[in-house]
Amino acid sequence: MQNNPALARRILPVAIAAALLGLWLLHSAPVGSGQARSPADGAPARLFDRIFIVVLENTWFSRAVGAPFLQSLASRGALFTNYYAVTHPSYPNYLAMIAGSTLGVQDNSERDFDATSLVDLLESAGVSWKVYAENLPSPCFLGARSPDGLYVRKHEPYISFRNIQGSPERCARIVNADQLPSDLAEDALPQYSLYVPNVHHDGHDASIGEADAWLRTFLTPLLQDPRFMRRTLLVVTFDEDSGFWTNRIYTAFIGDMVQPGITNESRYNHYSLLRMIEDNFGVGTLNREDSRAAVICCVWKK
Fold first, then answer.
1. What is the DSSP letter of 263?
2. What domains can you pick out in the chain, each with its CATH number?
3. pLDDT tens, residue by residue, 243-274
4. For residues 198 and 77, what is the distance between their CA atoms, to the nearest angstrom?
5. First CA to last CA across the chain, in angstroms?
6. Phi/psi of residue 255, each to 5°?
7. Residue 121 — left, alpha, or beta (φ > 0 → left; ψ -120 to 50 → alpha)?
């Protein structure tokens, strides 16, 4: 083709404008419309890139908030003073955290469900997940408790779902908590982590003072580890209180996206926590109580 200076003068500005528009679109796309920031193989996130949840057991709010390390966590992050479990006893609360419903359970007898849970939403959106369970004998262990009695199935809710039990790939994401250090060393912490302490560490078979002391030992190195804390929201909560009336429980958020030292008095519950996770990763809801839950707000940095 022969050179045509006049045509070139007309085409060049158009090409430059198109290139500039492409660059603008690339860098101005809203969070959730492009690739995730971290981890590399994850889905887009909004307020946080990763969430790490630790669930303790059976303690009144007033006792938990007075424990020294739990108190220090609250001062470092956000304390929710009007946060409630949804029922008694323990097991249906764990189901509520991940299924948006107690699924009709009113006791601590483990069941198997043909139902969806949070991981169905996460996986459909490419969000990585893992459960770290202390003293878990093996992936897909279905016994009520481990031989040493420290792991109990009712505190690890995902194994109650048949579409997880029957999938070796999914079972492989429910691991003994001993794997956490290697995942941290390899920068392989997933976007969603549920940490299940054993029944001594979570306070079920021990005092709140002992649980608080264990939590200090466990979390202090993580709080000091930039690989763990970078864009990670740490949530410490309880399954239920130790009574039968109010069911108000301690819940605190810690992370670089949280206003330090803030107190939130709005009423929330386990369904609100689930809804926050769903909204953060843009995965939709399970169309149960999570879809109607109060949305957690007002603790985030501007």
1. E
2. 47-292 (3.40.720.10)
3. 877 999 999 999 999 999 999 999 999 999 99
4. 25
5. 56
6. 170, 165
7. alpha
